[in-house]
């Protein structure tokens, strides 16, 4: 698949799963066989939000994902620290520089050793441009276990511009596709009620439009709030909108 064919296929991808499968295959053509993509819309000065609300796409082992993402190890990862403060591409050689200069913290060194056990020693991180203070996205591209960072740097020197374009297009497309975390899924009824709320309808309006009682509408809203782990209906509408779970075109 040429780059143009890849870009056309990605921009036409109907689901995140389809896009991610194509992206894994395309990046492997350049030698990067392990990828992790992550995006949050809930960044603050001290947190990146609830990991259950992140978009996380990866072909890493599930036990690695559990410890790295859900148990919070990522917060001390040197390349994530870099991605939060920068945009563009960065060689993982910066971690060796941190070790040699003695600037790596004990927490960062623990992450480094954790990743070494999986053979994550050579690669690049791409930090995507943010349009909001609350959002941040990045992707890590790793070479096979045993590869040297010099190999990754040589690949990037030759193909870096193409790799940046492909990863940026994939990221922008992901932003347009529905993403439903397993812990945050909505039923069809819950989505429909939230859509009417988003359109400015009152409880009485929604009950009439859906042919249900106001009590039933409130039940669906309560369950939607619980599913999305928020306190108010306004927050539920916002989060469902962020995740592209509202006004979804059925495939």
TrEMBL record:
GO molecular function, a single term: DNA binding
Domain of life according to the entry: Bacteria
UniProt cross-references to SMART domains, sorted A to Z: HTH_LUXR
A family per Pfam: Autoind_bind
Keyword Coiled coil: no
Alphabetical list of SUPFAM superfamilies matching this protein: C-terminal effector domain of the bipartite response regulators (SSF46894), Pheromone-binding domain of LuxR-like quorum-sensing transcription factors (SSF75516)
Record-level GO BP terms: regulation of DNA-templated transcription
Gene3D superfamilies, alphabetized: Transcription factor LuxR-like, autoinducer-binding domain, Winged helix-like DNA-binding domain superfamily/Winged helix DNA-binding domain
PROSITE patterns associated with the record: HTH_LUXR_2
InterPro entries named among the record's database cross-references: Sig_transdc_resp-reg_C-effctor (IPR016032), TF_LuxR_autoind-bd_dom (IPR005143), TF_LuxR_autoind-bd_dom_sf (IPR036693), Tscrpt_reg_LuxR_C (IPR000792), WH-like_DNA-bd_sf (IPR036388)
Ranges where the HTH luxR-type domain occurs: 179-244
Keywords, sorted A to Z: DNA-binding, Transcription, Transcription regulation
Name used for this protein in its record: LuxR family transcriptional regulator
Protein source organism: Poseidonocella pacifica
Origin organism lineage: Bacteria, Pseudomonadati, Pseudomonadota, Alphaproteobacteria, Rhodobacterales
